[in-house]
Structures are given as structure tokens and as C-alpha cells.
Fold this protein.
Amino acid sequence: MTRLTAWALTLTFLGAGVAVAQQPSFYPAQGQSPQQQSQDLAACQSWAAQQTGATSGAPAAQSPPRAGGRARGAAAGAAGAAITGNDPGRGAAAGAVGGAAAQRGARRQDRRQAATQQQQANSAFSSAMAACMQGRGYAAR
């Protein structure tokens, strides 16, 4: 379990680094001073966040963990075994294994969905930033 946690944290940090690295940089196309560029960048970040509801480099919102897959599976397995006249203990054990597998699959799906939503939010934020900065006379690199 510790190894899995370490891998999950490593992938999270790597993914966050990639998202931040993909942000475009802007240079003044109309001779703006560094101070003006800093002010414009801050204003555009604020505006882009208001428009998209996302912020640059913010981690994805975590969905609440799914729980109870084994227990629900065990209950269903025991009930099914009792109805068919089989050993409820074995039915519960088989149901717990199936419930745990279903729970893991649902968690994977939740992670994929969160990653997709984060990518979409980052893309929307980047587009809004680019539009704002271009409107203020900057060019993207």
C-alpha cells in the first residue's frame, strides 16, 4: 500500500509540473515595461480565473473516496447464495471480492474523469490568459 501511495504522489507531482510547464509565456510586443508586464499578467490571471472558474496550476478537486464495495458485494453474494441454496459464507466471500473489484474500477474511472476535467480547465484558463494578454499588446511564445 505504501508503494502505491508513493507512486500516486509521484504521478500527481509530475502531472502538476507538466500542466504548469505548458503555460505560455508572454513578451511585450509594444514596448511595455517589466513593471507594466507584471501588472498586466496579474490582471489577466485574475480575469481568466473569473471567466473560467479555474486557476493556473491549481490541483484537481478530489472526489470523495468510494467506500463499502466489499460490504455491499458480500451482502449481495450471501443473499444470492441463500436464495439459490448454496453456502452463504462462500457467497459472501465471492461477493466481497467482486465488490472490491468494482470499487477499484469506479475509483479509476473517477480519477480519469477528474484528470479530464482538470485538462479542460487548464486549457480554458490558458486560452483566456492568451486572449487577455494579446488584447493588452503582448505576444505569446
Helices lie at 2-21, 34-52, 69-84, 88-135. Residues 16-21 have pLDDT under 50 and may be disordered. The CA atoms of residues 52 and 124 lie 6 Å apart. The chain is about 75% helix and 5% strand.
